[in-house]
Amino acid sequence: MKYKIIVTRKFEKDLKKLTYAEQRQVASKLKILQNNPLYPSLRTKRIKGFDGLFECSINMDIRILWQYKGEDIIITIDVGHHSLVDRL
Question: 8, 76 in Cβ contact below 8 A?
Fold first, then answer.
């Protein structure tokens, strides 16, 4: 099943803070996320203490925070360096 990705304003704003190369990595991983959120290279995991919030890895430093809406929609919440989970 292919998911529809909804990008939030916060996600777009934080994406612009990344380098061009990092933005390209994010775009590539979003395509994978859209097709299979549990694909091994994403290292998807549920964030403890937050109901229905997930993170996946872009590289060893950058993460995407997201959640499901219904059965076929993924809403991107935030993107940034690994410490972004600490900002929640």
Answer: yes
Q: Where are the chain's structural domains?
A: 4-83
Residues 4-83: name the CATH superfamily. Answer: RelE-like (3.30.2310.20)
Residue type, 34: Q
Q: Where are the alpha helices (DSSP H) in the chain?
A: 9-16, 20-35
Backbone phi, then psi, for 2, in 5-degree steps?
Answer: -100, 130
Cα separation of 34 and 9, whole Å? Answer: 19
Whole-angstrom Cα distance, residue 72 to residue 88?
Answer: 25
Digitized pLDDT (tens) for each residue of the chain, 88 residues in all: 799 999 999 999 999 999 999 999 999 999 999 999 999 999 999 999 889 999 999 998 999 999 999 999 999 999 998 666 556 5
Neighbours of 39 (CB within 10 A): 13
